[in-house]
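Key result, reporting period 2: structure in, sequence out.
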């Protein structure tokens, strides 16, 4: 097997790795002067700040208007777990992994959710699984790129068919705000502010396509869903996390 070549294009700022990363250009401690501290997150001012983050994130990332964008607890892990626990099980699932977090999502699918008709595709550190083997009639779970090795799926998602029957669930933490994502190829996308933004990891964000919202509204998994992962209210999508509530 040929040895993968190191990429010729590298980031201008090398301070990007596992864990918290460099702050964005121009960041100073002065940005914290209006921080909403010591108050309930349910206060109108706190909700307004969260809603502003949602609105600005949609604009900066170019997320389509018909996608739901929300803030969830538990960093990217909480947001992606919410997607897995709410959306998976309606059909078969293919899970891709080649680094730590992909391995964690595989473990969740096998050991926690115990999904039926589950296929796993793994690759050694620094490599990708064979993407030609993925069945997009199934739901497909993957990270866009690995945090530690930086190995990233190719060609802006050209390997994902537009007419797929299943959903694509993408953990995008290590690429979001640094890579132009093909939103039409992605149905449930999660991230935190920890990597490119150099922020804290307490909160996660999620974007859901109309197809993902339809699945959420019509598929009711036969399993208990922890409260912090629940995205439905009275059997339909709960609008509150997507409004800053």
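The corresponding designed sequence is given below.
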């Amino acid at each position: 097997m040929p040895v993968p070549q190191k990429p010729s294009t590298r980031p201008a700022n090398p301070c990007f790795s596992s864990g918290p990363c460099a702050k964005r250009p121009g960041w100073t401690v002065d940005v914290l002067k209006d921080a909403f501290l010591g108050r309930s997150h349910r206060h109108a001012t706190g909700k307004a700040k969260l809603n502003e983050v949602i609105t600005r994130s949609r604009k900066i990332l170019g997320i389509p208007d018909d996608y739901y964008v929300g803030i969830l607890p538990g960093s990217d892990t909480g947001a992606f777990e919410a997607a897995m626990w709410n959306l998976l099980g309606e059909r078969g699932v293919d899970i891709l992994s080649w680094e730590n977090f992909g391995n964690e999502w595989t473990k969740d699918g096998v050991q926690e959710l115990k999904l039926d008709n589950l296929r796993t595709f793994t690759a050694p550190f620094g490599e990708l699984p064979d993407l030609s083997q993925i069945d997009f009639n199934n739901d497909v779970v993957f990270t866009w790129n690995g945090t530690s090795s930086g190995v990233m799926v190719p060609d802006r998602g050209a390997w994902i068919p537009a007419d797929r029957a299943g959903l694509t669930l993408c953990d995008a933490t290590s690429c979001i705000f640094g890579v132009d994502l093909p939103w039409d190829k992605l149905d449930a996308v999660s991230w935190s502010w920890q990597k490119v933004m150099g922020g804290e990891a307490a909160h996660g964000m999620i974007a859901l396509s109309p197809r993902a919202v339809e699945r959420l509204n019509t598929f009711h998994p036969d399993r208990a869903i922890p409260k912090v992962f629940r995205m439905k209210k009275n059997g339909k999508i709960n609008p509150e996390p997507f409004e800053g509530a």
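Residues 66-242 form a domain with the Aspartate Aminotransferase; domain 2 fold (CATH 3.40.640.10). The chain has one domain: 66-242. This case is discussed further under Risks and Mitigation.
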